[in-house]
């Protein structure tokens, strides 16, 4: 843990449930982490009321930072960016830019969060585009996959940058020395991939990364790969497909154990077994996607996250602060893209982390 | 059912298990369908032995058609096409081309099957590229999705052709008047899709199809859409992802019910419930992908299909013969692409179906 106590700015108004979820989750994390400081960003009166409802009108490690506006879940990213300059999302990101917070956590609109974070924090020099990385359960652990929707059309160079960012993140937060990087592709030998994927494979093969080659969709779950790299279109479709199938199977299993008295009785008896299963694959456990490649830590919580899930997103931020993820990426990128390839014109700025 | 008795050519050597699976599955189907005639294509001696082992050295509605070679599961499509002209796969397709069979079923190498089928049967005039369509379980029924890997880079026009083919197939085999067609996309409003997807949406909107607009990965399972259209790269990743997740969850569930004596006992009691669940999502039930857009019916079985699964692929062929799927597609395409757009140079040839 860095010497300074970690400070996290929470977009307290974001997500489907707003303060109803963000405030109790924040209080849970304060209880769990005695060093943690939180800034709840949002409408002062609403947040005060919510805190009071949870019996904590004040807390020594918590403060409210007023922001008058709220980005709606269906606001267009460009409009949120242009018209809602005093939104809880924007102001929380400003706090990171200004060095008052080490990270921002938001359950708000993904597109708006990405656009605003990119505008406010800028990308790390050498990174052209930020990407979204998520964690999914796999046999014997978990797999990290990016990009999950920030970039629809990606060049080979972009995929390579995603790989570098994912590698440095996983190395830091999972404490693995040399995580395995795979490039998502399809299995037909001769038509293997489109041009970008083939080119990206060449870039990855000659890089410092532990590149294990092409992987297919089912490899996400086999535990044979730690970081799966793909473009945002494919990644987003894969993620949504996973969510959809998990929901259908969960529903069918619940219905199966409810369809008659016998099934219900067995279902009751099977609860301990099913609970273990549910816990392992509980999406709340995996809540907290990282917006990688920015000059600051930004964690995106699922919009409909509940208290426990949102707390996990805060924990993810805490871990990335502790491991100084953006600095690691920045240092690595500076060495490998030093020749000017992929250098982004955004100028670096002073953040709390840079100063630390 | 057409007046002629349906004849299906089976690539009896294809797949991970070859005759061990194809022969008993063929015999099962002959028992079930008293009109059905089957041609087992493959090495005469091997097939004779296999039939004898199943106690049927001869059957009035079954004949063996000798083919000396076998396409291996890892043969490159181009090599299979060039070098194995007497493979069971190629010869089975020849029988369809020559009007001796109404359909071909193979569990062989997908790439080789697609390349060979395209070469032997040619595409339907007006269709530029064949596509692979699969059926997946969904809430209240099933969803059909294409392309699953035949075409990596697709233009808007290709996606439109896929939609037309999928629509005509589903209308025929599911007996629905106006199945709902969705275009697979991602949810971010402003970056919605790449150029091809946006253009395809415009084409679909002004077509005769029941186009319901963009759908996301999770919609595959909600029962809100009947036909999901996407390019072969995305489709293949989605399909493999689904297979991988289903396998992981199934494994975890089995492990959960085995980890101690209590869990085992409950697992035994839960068998009737779990069986219903397993049956509904049994991949064998959904075995049999159709290679759409060819001048003939070609069904691809999963390579590791077992007897029951392979029999389902034969049933799929039977259904498409009954519904004259290629003719329906051909007629539709002739009317909508009559202006010359998307006309493919392959000349039509005489098949058993054309003559019927």
Automatic annotation (TrEMBL), chains A, B:
Q: Which UniProt keywords apply?
A: Acyltransferase, Cytoplasm, Lipid biosynthesis, Lipid metabolism, Phospholipid biosynthesis, Phospholipid metabolism, Transferase
Q: State the name under which the record lists this protein.
A: Phosphate acyltransferase
Q: Which EC numbers characterise this protein's activity in its record? A: 2.3.1.274
Q: Where in the cell is it found?
A: Cytoplasm
On whether Lipid metabolism is a keyword of this UniProt record, the answer is yes
Pathway entry = Lipid metabolism; phospholipid metabolism
What InterPro entries does the record tag this protein with?
FA_synthesis, Phospholipid_synth_PlsX-like
Q: Which residues form a coiled coil?
A: none
Q: Which reaction does it catalyse?
A: a fatty acyl-[ACP] + phosphate = an acyl phosphate + holo-[ACP]
Subunit structure as annotated in this protein's UniProt entry: Homodimer. Probably interacts with PlsY.
One cellular component (GO) term of this entry: cytoplasm
Asked whether the UniProt record includes Transferase among its keywords, one would answer yes
Which family, according to the similarity comment?
Belongs to the PlsX family.
Alphabetized Pfam families for the sequence: FA_synthesis
Q: Name its GO BP terms in alphabetical order.
A: fatty acid biosynthetic process; phospholipid biosynthetic process
Q: Which domain of life is it from?
A: Bacteria
């Amino acid at each position: 843990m860095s010497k300074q106590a970690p400070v996290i700015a929470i977009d307290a108004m974001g997500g489907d449930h707003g303060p109803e979820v963000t405030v109790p989750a924040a209080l849970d994390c304060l209880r769990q982490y005695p060093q943690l400081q939180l800034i709840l960003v949002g409408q002062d009166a609403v947040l005060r009321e919510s805190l009071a409802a949870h019996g904590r009108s004040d807390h020594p490690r918590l403060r409210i930072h007023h922001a008058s506006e709220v980005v709606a879940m269906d606001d267009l990213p460009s409009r949120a960016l242009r018209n809602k300059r005093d939104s809880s999302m924007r102001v929380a990101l400003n706090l990171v830019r200004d060095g008052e917070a080490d990270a921002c956590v938001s359950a708000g609109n993904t597109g708006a969060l990405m656009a605003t974070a990119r505008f406010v924090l800028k990308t790390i020099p050498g990174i052209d585009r930020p990407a979204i990385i998520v964690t999914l359960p796999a046999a014997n652990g978990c797999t990290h996959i990016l990009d999950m929707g920030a970039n629809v059309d990606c060049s080979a160079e972009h995929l390579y940058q995603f790989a570098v960012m994912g590698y440095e993140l996983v190395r830091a937060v999972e404490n693995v020395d040399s995580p395995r990087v795979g490039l998502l592709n399809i299995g037909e030998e001769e038509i293997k991939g489109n041009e970008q994927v083939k080119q990206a494979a060449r870039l990855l093969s000659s890089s410092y990364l532990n590149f294990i080659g092409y992987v297919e969709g089912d490899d996400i779950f086999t535990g044979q790969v730690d970081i799966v790299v793909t473009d945002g279109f494919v990644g987003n479709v894969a993620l949504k497909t996973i969510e959809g199938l998990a929901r259908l199977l969960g529903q069918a299993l619940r219905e199966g154990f409810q369809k008659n008295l016998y099934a219900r009785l067995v279902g009751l008896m099977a609860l301990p077994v099913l609970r273990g299963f549910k816990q392992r694959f509980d999406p709340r456990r995996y809540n907290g996607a990282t917006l990688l490649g920015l000059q600051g830590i930004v964690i995106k919580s699922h919009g409909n996250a509940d208290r426990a899930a949102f707390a996990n997103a805060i924990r993810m931020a805490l871990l990335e602060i502790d491991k100084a993820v953006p600095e690691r990426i920045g240092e690595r990128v500076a060495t490998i893209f030093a020749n000017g390839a992929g250098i982004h014109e955004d100028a670096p700025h002073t953040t709390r982390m840079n100063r630390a």
